[in-house]
Amino acid sequence: MSPRKISLAVAITAVLSTGSAFAAQVASGYTFTAAGAVSNFTALTPDGTGLYAPYNGYTFGGTNDVTFTWDGTFFNSSSDYTGLSSVSNATISSPTLFLSKLWTAHTVQIFGPGTYSFDTALANGGPVTESGNLTMTVGANQIGAHILFDWNNNLSIDMVNVWNLNSTFSNCGAALTNPAAQNCLWTGPTNIAGNNANTVFALASTDNNGDGTLGIPMVAGGPFFDTLYGSFNFNFNLQGVSAVPIPAAAWLFGSGLLGLLGLARRKQR
Prior knowledge:
By secondary structure, the protein is α+β, with helices and mostly antiparallel strands. It is 14% helix and 34% strand. The chain has helices at residues 3-20, 248-268; strands spanning 26-27, 30-32, 38-44, 59-70, 73-74, 90-93, 103-111, 114-119, 133-138, 142-151, 154-167, 201-205, 225-226, 230-231, 233-237, 241-243.
């Protein structure tokens, strides 16, 4: 290899190495502010095969006093999730009980666009013995999350959400009066923000797997899966996120790397 090619290889390696120190978390292009960030949690019955009819996608629990924080970074690889040892870049919490039991969301990881698959057996705890992969596809102008959820001594139940930006959760406002109403936002007790069917959330949960029920079903083995009825869907609808320009340093890094790669191609020719 010529001295020039060696120098070029060293330069490319240096650029890549500089970025690799932060490979697990990259600038998202969004910022988080806690101001007015009162968020929602809505739990829906399974869509399944219709055995819950007429209660498919029925809202049966939740709260509207959720606190969300986020450092504004994205994870960008399925391998960034390693179970309980995973680095977290966000928090979700509420003092309100769910179905009369304490719950905790933890090890929250926010992901940018891409398709991700998470091994749900990595963090089995207590009576939870989940198996299989939980998958989400985050599109352009969407944000995704992997979350571990503790409830009633069931530890580290895997769930994922994919959110649309600046959107309502659904147009249904009859969750507490019509048991057959589907995909309604939880508007029951502890609604200090007055959230309703018309509330625009910075991040609104979506029907990412296309089964007609908002959210992504949890896998078998956890407390929110039934062999006859299917998997329940838990949705967080969050406030406090706004778009900001991608930092100039990120563009400079990208253009510098592309320039080096282009130079390498010309040298090869």
